[in-house]
Structure formats: structure tokens, C-alpha cells
Amino acid sequence: MQANYLQRQAEFKARLEQQGYSAMLVLGHENIRYLSGFSGNAAYALITKNDCILITDYRYHQRATAETSGFDVVCRDRDTESLGDCINRHLAAKSHVAFDASYITVAVWQDVEKALSNHTFAPVTGLIEQQRRVKDAWEVEQIKAAAAIADQALAETLPYFKEGVTERDLALELEYRMQKLGSEGMSFATIMLFAERTALPHGNPSSQVLKHGDFITLDFGAVVNGYRSDMTRSYILGEASDKQISIYKAVQEAQQASLAFVKPGINCLALNAASQQVLDDAGYGEYAGKGLGHGLGLFLHEVPFINTLTDYTLEVGNVITIEPGIYIPGYGGVRLEDDIVVTDTGYEVLTHAPKPFII
After folding, report:
1. What digits encode the pLDDT tens for the residues 159-213?
2. Could you tell me which residue ranges the Creatinase N-terminal domain spans (predicted)?
3. What is the DSSP code string of 35-57?
4. Tell me, what CATH number does 122's domain have?
5. Which structural domain, as residue segments, surrounds residue 87?
6. Max Cα separation, the chain?
7. How far is residue 252's CA from residue 75's CA, in Å, rounded to a whole number?
8. Are residues 55 and 99 in the same domain?
9. Are 112 and 188 in the same domain?
10. Which of 130, 166, 227, 331 has the largest CB neighbor count within 10 A?
11. Are residues 214 and 98 located together in one domain of the fold?
């Protein structure tokens, strides 16, 4: 992995130079991990033309030294040195510095800026995230491993889907099994919803009890080495009505229609349009979720996003979700989501849990 980090650092330094910056202050934990390997928090990274510096404190110094590649780790004494002063002593005179604007509060930045009056600063967003869009082989393997954990955990939890169980109990069971199988916590807060509550795209599990004929929607993911999986399955317990079958079939066909387009060189707008057309033709277009999917990696929702706004052409190594959904208030909904990686010839599905509608 050391070579991977060194390559990422070299590529990012070249990006900085192209943008006209002499340095960048990196503040997002996922961005720091991507460039350095450090998995903790309470850290700040400073990337210059010649150096990569990780600033942390006594709580993380040993861990950062062990985990990072290509970085000099600085242990700042928070009692005697401000963050701004520490950054200042590692910057060349009158540097033009970019900073990760999405990951710092105004109050903290104003305090830091006071110590850096000799330099000019520019807020930037998405500079590192653009580099993160294309995953290397190691990154893809971590997402595959996380997806495999989620697949297995769901298989072990399905026998508990019975009348009388609550949303909260099933969510906890699923999370317990993912962690027993090796997940580093949850990719995000597990969504487990029954009946009419499945019309909530991102509802929280409640004490609602599962009944015969209910819709079930579960959206969840595991984490391996910081990389996340994200999968949604929808079921009916026992017996489905004609309308429930119609909704499920429309979502299933919408997902397949968009997947049929996936390959390098295809624009994300085309994927979204293919899915929406199926849902429109089935009569459910007004109930469709806004957006078809998103990039996936160290962060749950990464670029590229698949919606009506993102003009992005797929590249080999993009890992994305394809997750069409129908959400009818007061009645219920269905979402099907899989993780895929774009390959030279098309795509590879990373999530393999079966999709039986009736359980």
C-alpha cells in the first residue's frame, strides 16, 4: 500500500501546481486518510510542493506514525502552540494556500487565519474528491470485502424476519452480525422500515411491528479499512398484492435498464434517464426518488452523483450505486440498490445478496 499512497500524493501535488497553489491544508478525515493512510481524527494535513505533513497531538501521534506513508508526523502541544502557529512554521514565506472549505467551521478558520496573515488563502471544494472518483485495485477490494460482509450478515438475519418483530430489533440484529463478521462499525445508520413507513427514503427504525403482507425496506452497509458498502433490499412478508408486485417490478426493471447502459464513456445523465423512463412508463414517475445513485468509497456519498444535474462520463474504476426507488406516501415503497465497479467492458456487481420479493 505504501506505493499507492506515494502515487496519490504525487498526483495531488501535480493537481495543486496546475491550480496555482503552493500548498493545501487538508481538513476532511476521509481526504486525509486517502492521502496518508491515517485512520484517526483530530488531525490536519498540509501538502506542499516538497512535503506532506500530518499535524496531530499526543492522543494520535503513535498511531499516526505507524499508519502513515510519505508523511512527516508533527505532534502539536495544544497547550503551548495554536493550530495556526503550527501550520505557519511549516509554510514557506508568502504561500498561496488552498484549504478544504467543506470541513471547517467559520469560527475555527477565523482563529487559524489570524496566525497566517503573511499568506493568502483560497477556499476549495472537491479537489481531492475529484481524484478519489477513480478507485485503484486495492480500494475496490476493500469495498468488495465490505459488501461480502453485508451479504453474509443479511443471509444470517433473514430467518428473523417474522411477524411480531420490530424494525429496531431487526436493525440491531443485522448490525450485530455485520460487526461479528468483521465490519468496522456501520457504513451509516441502518434503515429498517415496515409497511407504510417504507415510503420514507431514509427513515429511522422504530418500534413498529412486522405484519403479514407488509412491505419491508432495509438499507445498510459494512466498513473495511474505512471503505464502505451500501445495499438496499425490499421484501414483502408472506403474500403480496397486485399493486405491491407492480411497484416492485417497476423498480426492478428500472435498475436493470440503467445497468444496461453502464460502461466507460457513458454519461451519468443517461443512466438516470433510463431508470426514470421505466418508472414513468409504469405510471410511478411522480413517486420516484430524486437521483439514481452516487459514488462510494471512504465516504458514503462521493462523486460522481447520478441524477439530472451531474454531467460526468463514467471511467474505469468508478464505484457507484444504482438505486431506483418508488415512495408512495401513506402506502409504502420499494428501493433496490447495488454497488458496482465500472470495468473495461462494462461493470462488475459487488453486492450479491439475492432479491426475492416475497419472504
Report:
1. 999 999 999 999 999 999 999 999 999 999 999 999 999 999 999 999 999 999 9
2. 8-134
3. HH----SS-EEEEESS-EEEEE-
4. 3.40.350.10
5. 2-131
6. 71
7. 52
8. yes
9. no
10. 227
11. no
